[in-house]
Amino acid sequence: MQALLALSRGIDAINLRMGRVVSWVTLLVVLVSAGNAIVRKVFHYSSNAWLELQWYMFGAMFLLTAGYTLLKNDHVRVDIIASRLSRRAQVWIEIFGVLCFLLPACVLIMMLSWPVFMDSYLSNEQSSNSGGLIRWPVKLLIPVGFALLVLAGLSHLIKCIGFLMGRCRDPREREGAKSAEAELAEEIAREAQAREAAALRELNNKGG
Q1: Are 63 and 141 in contact (CB under 8 A)?
Q2: What CA–CA distances, in Å, run from 199 to 47, 191, 192?
Q3: Helices H, strands E: what count in the chain?
Q4: What is the pLDDT of residues 129-176, one digit of tens each?
Q5: What average pLDDT does this structure show over 30-59?
Q6: Which of 87, 104, 116, 176 lies 20 to 30 A from 47 at CA?
Q7: Across the strands, what pairs with 134?
Q8: How far apart (Å, rounded) are the C-alpha atoms in residues 99 and 81?
Q9: Higher model confidence: residue 7 or residue 83?
């Protein structure tokens, strides 16, 4: 089990590194998108190459960080029933979901997308838009992104088994942070309190 947990840590390191790299890609997308908008509005000029580069990086943001998102437990969970079960039962459901849904779906998409990428690469497929980019790099993102998600799924599976054996913490817990759902609920509550306070001040001002 220790060897498997070491493998899990190695996989997590890969996805953590990818998450950090793509965070810079996100900044580049913002800069390229803003530049495209400024040039189009101010100089009345548009470049298909820059527009497609923007789309390629946008796709990379989602495809290459799916594994990182699973690692950080930021995927949306609909667990109305599971949340009422014991923690061990919830982890067994995680194992079932990874084995029966996550891994088979990701492997299938990898298998179907690889020939599409190879055809594009061997034919040096070009964009149908004038001045556009070559197509195979963006098509490569699909099998690579799902390969990273498969690795993240295997790591998550190992940690779930490790938790059941008492070898590691619950992998569904988020380190030092609340879930996105909890943060959203708190933000909504704060906004509601702010509106109530503003309404009370307005009533007090009218009464005065």
Answers
A1: yes
A2: 50, 12, 11
A3: 7, 0
A4: 887 788 899 999 999 999 999 999 999 999 988 888 887 777 777 665
A5: 85
A6: 116
A7: 126
A8: 20
A9: 7
